[in-house]
Amino acid sequence: MKETAPEAAINSNEDWKKNIEATKDVSEATTADLEWADAIVFGTPTRYGGAASQLRAFIDTTGGLWAKGALIDKIGSSFSSAATAHSGHENTILSFNSVFYHWGMIIVSPGYNDPIQFQMGNPYGVSHTLGNGTIPPDKTALAAARFQGKRVAEITN
Amino acid sequence: MKETAPEAAINSNEDWKKNIEATKDVSEATTADLEWADAIVFGTPTRYGGAASQLRAFIDTTGGLWAKGALIDKIGSSFSSAATAHSGHENTILSFNSVFYHWGMIIVSPGYNDPIQFQMGNPYGVSHTLGNGTIPPDKTALAAARFQGKRVAEITN
Amino acid sequence: MKETAPEAAINSNEDWKKNIEATKDVSEATTADLEWADAIVFGTPTRYGGAASQLRAFIDTTGGLWAKGALIDKIGSSFSSAATAHSGHENTILSFNSVFYHWGMIIVSPGYNDPIQFQMGNPYGVSHTLGNGTIPPDKTALAAARFQGKRVAEITN
Amino acid sequence: MKETAPEAAINSNEDWKKNIEATKDVSEATTADLEWADAIVFGTPTRYGGAASQLRAFIDTTGGLWAKGALIDKIGSSFSSAATAHSGHENTILSFNSVFYHWGMIIVSPGYNDPIQFQMGNPYGVSHTLGNGTIPPDKTALAAARFQGKRVAEITN
Question: Does C89 sit within 8 Å of B122, measured CB to CB?
Fold first, then answer.
């Protein structure tokens, strides 16, 4: 979705600038995508235990869809990341998922429905501890993400 | 489920005693019921924003079912009540529903998927403000409860 | 704080436009205000059970303050509003308050520490049901807001 | 507090039986203890993201204290443990702490107010990943617990 942070904030952070440049050709999600999709999966880094404001800003443009019930009965699922262990991994997903309740959707989480979940740990959705961007998603996180994606696809069918 | 409160507490409250007497022939839910059911709907009064300990005690006996994955992919939904408005209606349902995440279930809530929900208000599950037992569930609460039950049944099918 | 919504969204809503005009001389909160304040009270309408993205965007600019521990031991409290009963009144405050945990602050809520709270109902913070802007805060909401403010001031002292 | 689990459940688990035996001379907390204490710190293993029913049963006996406002303005804080990472560490503390809101107490958490917190990770309260009882609290968990205790004591003063 759209980057809503002030340019000065972005420019003060080399990694952020590089990421904006690297992803400039990735097409942005729009509310129209929410309408045709049968399943919606959101991912966000934690911001003090909640979702990033860029994601919340996108969510706040969905009033029209909500009003006409366009999101009812779709499947919803979420994943997150945080700098350290237990610093918003659970809270970000659980608090964000209340959006799905309001939209009348059906919530699907990974639970402990696959052995990989006992390694990754988080039953609410995949989450990864990434230092401050120093630890890329590891084998466990990637395998758990594949499981969550597969599970969402299967339930949606 | 089983009453776990101390007998002295029960006896100090006329309404509680009467209710125990009135419901003595209602068969108690067991963990075996969780196993055959395709959908599981829990209701609880709020206790400081969480579920009643009687319900939590029942939940705490499900370790065996969880360990063998017996609850995976079932449909879960909850409802609640509280003495005053906004005094745990939302919080009780949302915090209790984390049990469903751990069990690997699928969460279905009423959302605003029916006009009755705009009157009852709570998208997470039906809830009713009951004074301290002085206000029985009204027309709105009953209609919303019927809607939530119907929705759970339909999604389960 | 700063309005971050797209101009097209604002212009599509007469009340929103009027409010922007009416509040154009109110000075915006800045992160510098967070630094000198001994107590911080946030209010937000619910957006699907979470805070408005405008507030989250402001929160997301506080990384510098957090990194130097500038918010530690301050008093935090929140209030909210929603269109209907039980439609995010509790959830918005509880999920938003996790910001205070991350900032190392001390959380003060109204509880049932005053008779007005049994009328207003919400122990987590004042909240008001406002239709869709059709119901201005009533006597109960205003009295509860005064109580919450007074309580925050007293504990801060 | 009082063990409320059925004897059959306890007897089916050697570690549980040993713990009952080992702690039989530890005096149980009573609601009277809540009344004289200036600060109240609760710890609980996670049970599917919520507190153990033994603790909830104790909480459910405090109606008398709550009704007379005996817990108002006390300091509250919580800690937890779970079998795996992100499997209720945050959720258990956050959902349990809503009890403090209802009691009109003041919530104090460790935040990131000490360097140990960046190692332990959980800003809501200390938590420890204990396998299934196979991993005793390590140096980090113990140091973080000491910090949380010290912080609660200082704020209480």
Answer: no
Residues of A in contact with D126 (CB under 8 A): none
What is the Cα–Cα distance from C8 to A64, expressed in whole angstroms? Answer: 14
Question: What is the reported pLDDT for A152?
Answer: 98
DSSP-assigned letters across all residues of B70-88: TTTT-EEEEEEEESSTTSS
User: Could you report the per-residue pLDDT of A9-57, keeping only the tens digit for each?
Assistant: 888 888 888 888 888 888 888 999 999 999 999 999 999 999 999 999 9
Cβ-contact A89, A122 below 8 angstroms: yes
**How far off is chain D from A148, nearest CA to CA, in Å?**
16
Closest CA to B145 of B79, B55, B100: B79
Q: How far apart are CA C102 and CA B48, in angstroms?
A: 23
Q: Is A4 part of the contact surface with chain B (CB cutoff 8 Å)?
A: no
* H or E segment and range at residue B39: strand B39-45
CA pair distance A111, D49, nearest whole angstrom: 12
Rounded to the nearest integer, the mean pLDDT of chain B is 94
pLDDT, residue C71, reads 98
Phi, psi of B117, deg, nearest 5? -65, -30
Instruction: State the CB neighbour count (10 A cutoff) for residue D8.
Output: 8
Nearest residue on chain B to D9, alpha-carbon basis? B61
Phi then psi dihedrals of residue D78, to 5 deg: -140, 160
- The pLDDT tens digits of the residues spanning B32-51 come to 999 999 999 999 999 999 99
User: Mapping DSSP to helix (H, G, I), strand (E, B) and coil, where does residue A116 land?
Assistant: helix
pTM of the model: 0.96
CA pair distance C124, B11, nearest whole angstrom:
32
Tokens describing residue A65? 């869809």
Q: How far apart are CA A9 and CA A19, in angstroms?
A: 13
**Dihedral sign, CA of A140, A146, A149, A150?**
negative
Cα distances (angstroms) measured from residue A22 to each of A19, A138, D59: 5, 21, 53
Query: To the nearest whole angstrom, how far is the Cα of C66 from the nearest Cα of chain A?
Result: 10
